[in-house]
């Protein structure tokens, strides 16, 4: 009798194990609001799809129950720490903006999922003024156009500048007050793809700004009227 009960329990356990749902697909997501266009550190999430059509998600971005420290997950570009991916942008460009995640399972095939991050499709100048004043720093505003549809400012981490006159100071152009040039040619290159190139010719303001008119009631040579 005991042997029969033992066999029944063993059979039930084996059937339950055989009927357990298995992971059949892995999906990966990234935070579209995390500005992956310009930042190299973004939140990510993983979604596990099971054979019974159920699903589980990682904690953090996807608000799931899977803890990151219990997963053996790696990335083809950069590192993952508690749901935050830090990647190398130059490698990202070489890999056509695709990053593959691999999750290793116990006695199960590895799972893979791919994300494609937004790529830069063009750059443009967006000058704040139509001319440059001497002896005043002029900010060189360059914007990037991305495949996500976003237009975001770029800085010297990604853009290299040159000018035919004056000095480049960080992302500013300074024309000396003694300079006699009438125009200045400004150039900009995207560092990781120099074929993305800009050229802009800006006039140099020659005349000083006119004096501001006096405030009402402060006209020179006149005194305010008042009671005596």
Automatic annotation (TrEMBL):
Signal peptide bounds: 1-18
Region span, Disordered: 208-228
Keywords: Signal
Top-rank lineage group of the source organism: Bacteria
Protein name: Uncharacterized protein
């Amino acid at each position: 009798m005991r042997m029969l009960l033992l066999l029944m329990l063993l059979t039930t356990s084996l059937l339950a194990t055989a009927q357990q749902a298995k992971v059949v697909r892995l999906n990966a997501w990234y935070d579209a609001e995390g500005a992956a266009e310009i930042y190299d550190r973004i939140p990510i999430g993983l979604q596990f799809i099971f054979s019974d059509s159920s699903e589980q998600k990682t904690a953090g971005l996807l608000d799931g129950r899977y803890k990151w420290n219990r997963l053996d997950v790696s990335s083809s570009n950069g590192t993952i720490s508690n749901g935050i991916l830090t990647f190398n942008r130059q490698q990202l460009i070489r890999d056509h903006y695709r990053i593959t995640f691999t999750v290793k399972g116990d006695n199960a095939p590895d799972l893979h999922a791919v994300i494609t991050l937004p790529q830069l499709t063009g750059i443009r100048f967006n000058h704040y003024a139509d001319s440059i004043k001497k002896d005043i720093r002029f900010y060189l505003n360059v914007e990037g156009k991305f495949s996500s549809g976003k237009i975001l400012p770029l800085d010297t981490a990604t853009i290299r500048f040159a000018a035919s006159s004056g000095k480049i100071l960080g992302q500013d152009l300074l024309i000396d007050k003694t300079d006699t040039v009438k125009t200045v040619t400004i150039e900009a290159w995207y560092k990781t793809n120099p074929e993305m190139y800009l050229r802009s010719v800006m006039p140099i303001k020659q005349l000083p700004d006119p004096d501001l008119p006096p405030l009402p009631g402060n006209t020179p040579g006149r005194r305010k009227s008042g009671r005596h």
